[in-house]
Amino acid sequence: MTAPLSTIDRFEIFEQLHLHQRYIDNDASRASAELYASLYWPEARFTVNDIRQNVFDGPAGMKQLYDYAHSVFPMQRMRHSLGTFVIQGAGDAATVEWNWVVTWREGGEGFLSTGTYFDKFEKRGGVWKCADRISHVDPNWPAEKFQPWVDRQDQTFKAS
């Protein structure tokens, strides 16, 4: 029988969730994109379900996701936060269901959107990283605010 997750394992996974939110709010530099990608195992997959569905695979995909977010959307005006979460698992495998919150940093507009991540984490060589992440936006997604940025993505997308 595999041992349940220890308190240390749970905390290390919890810290990864916080780092995800912190790193996505970094600047649009290549160094920040690489820092963000370092949270994932090399074969990791990230599926985003919002006004579109996109799948990002591996380090190049995570960098593309980061670059897309930072060049298409006004990320400098947003702040990502961790909401409630549940970490379950045993041994070197864990699943995490956690809520995310995006607010505006400026303009007094308040909440922008919320959603839920469904993650699979693996521990390798004593290190926990995400192997698979699925993001589902809540129905409060303000598609009308985001659609103009998506419509201009061919002109605004820049790789770091």
Based on Cα principal axes, name the global outline. globular
Order of helices and strands: HHEEHEEEEHH
As an assembly, this protein is single chain
Low-confidence stretches: none
Strand order in space, largest sheet: 2-1-6-5-4-3
Biggest sheet layout:
6 strands, mixed
Classification by helices and strands: alpha+beta
Mean pLDDT: 91
- Kindly report the CATH topology: Nuclear Transport Factor 2, Chain: A
What are the defining features of this structure?
160 residues, alpha+beta, Nuclear Transport Factor 2, Chain: A, 5 helices, SnoaL-like
Write up what this structure looks like.
Helix content is 34%, strand content 41%. The chain has one domain (7-156): Nuclear Transport Factor 2, Chain: A (Roll), CATH 3.10.450. 19% of the residues are buried. The chain has five helices and six strands. With 160 residues, it is α+β, with helices and mostly antiparallel strands. The longest helix has 18 residues, at 7-24. It has a six-stranded mixed beta sheet with strand order 2-1-6-5-4-3. The N and C termini lie far apart (46 Å).
In short:
This protein has 160 residues and is α+β, with helices and mostly antiparallel strands.
List the helices and strands and how they pair.
Layout lengths: L6 H18 L5 H8 L2 E10 L3 E5 H15 L5 E13 L2 E12 L6 E14 L2 E11 L5 H9 L1 H4 L4
Parallel strand pairs: 1-6
Antiparallel strand pairs: 1-2, 3-4, 4-5, 5-6
Helix pairs in contact: 1-2, 2-3
